[in-house]
Amino acid sequence: xxxxxxxxxxxxxxxxxxxxxxxxxxxxxxxxxxxxxxxxxxxxxxxxxxxxxxxxxxxxxxxxxxxxxxxxxxxxxxxxxxxxxxxxxxxxxxxx
Length: 96
Hints:
The chain is α+β, with helices and mostly antiparallel strands and 96 residues long. Helices cover 41% and strands 25% of the residues. The protein has helices at residues 3-16, 57-64, 70-75, 85-95, and strands spanning 25-29, 33-38, 41-44, 51-55, 80-83. A five-stranded mixed beta sheet has the order 3-2-1-4-5. The chain is globular.
């Protein structure tokens, strides 16, 4: 597993705290792997999800650090979303 994925799992779990996420979302970090988020928190995995968000490592890191708004990343084409757009928006508020 890559250092990028390990760091993403840690950062996402810190942002969500003990609440988890109501639904299943997958972040695909191009060239690195994927992270699944659900009611149990974040973990390195590649399984089916209600929504899949895909971005390169730099974009994903910028979103996690709060330097890039997820909606702005989507609108500029740096983040692609496949699946439940409402769930993606909800996830954006968790990451903010």
